[in-house]
């Protein structure tokens, strides 16, 4: 398939920080995707929390399955828009590489621990993983990914951290947060696909867990519309088949909505190339109605699932584990693996070490260092 003029073309990439000879059978974005899939950080995602801890059930999403779902949705949208599917896939698969164990609970606790030492941002940590922390090549740290892939991985960044990035890499991936320009369309698309994916799969996991019911979610207009459609067309459908059919219809509708809304903006702006996209307003979008309905669904999940008493109980214990691990490692850096012990910045080394942990490894380490068992099933 040919790319649209406004898409990122691997042949015109801004390149890698460390020059490399091209691969004989793959373009640079395909090569980035492959490096991400083979990375240690990517494999760890299988035991990192999305909403429910890994030991709470075999079928709940993890960061790994979430990332795969984001990649699938993003590619489905990229093709009809003429965007670069290889780049989209690479960004989607890498976007959560820097996430801590225990999901957002772990991230919040680690940010709190690092408050006097530069803080912790999981998007910045994902970039740090691919730029520095992966150790796979003889001539450089990290994965040496293309600028466009790195740009997409860094979804958010505080101004203070953007200034640090700019000082290290003038005109690099931190620059757009200072001059308020946009990332490439492929990066914009992955941001939206991420939102679509977690709204949909958190309904599935929430109902599976028993913390919310399908009937509750059906009162939210975005889901309720497709729930009613499915029941009208299949009056005998019930249970999980009904849930899956309603989610499938909702996902399809959101994908088509993004495609049509983005086409309209592209037609109005008519960017001549990828750099023109960066100078324009955000172009990958929902329609206003879909945006409002997606926000309403997100609010429902926040109040009824993410803040459910059972989730909050595990959240509290998970944050306790992260805080106590942090304190133990800062006091006794020798308890970390050797590569982290030797670093000059102890607090950042501890943050890197904890962020790289899976849920179950973090719990085992916490029990080893404190003698206390939190979230007991996690250390099995």
Automatic annotation (TrEMBL):
Region (Disordered): 8-29
The keyword Ion transport belongs to this UniProt entry's keyword annotation: no
GO molecular function: dGTPase activity
One GO biological process term: dGTP catabolic process
Signal sequence interval, chain numbering: none
Transmembrane segments: none
Keywords for the protein's UniProt record, in alphabetical order: Hydrolase
InterPro entries attached to this UniProt entry: dGTPase (IPR006261), dGTPase-like (IPR050135), dNTPase_2 (IPR023023), HD/PDEase_dom (IPR003607), HD_domain (IPR006674), PHydrolase_assoc_dom (IPR026875)
Pfam family for this entry, one: HD
Domain (HD) ranges: 63-199
NCBIfam families assigned: dGTP_triPase, PRK01286.1-1
Entry-linked HAMAP family: dGTPase_type2 (MF_01212)
Family: Belongs to the dGTPase family. Type 2 subfamily.
Protein name: Deoxyguanosinetriphosphate triphosphohydrolase-like protein
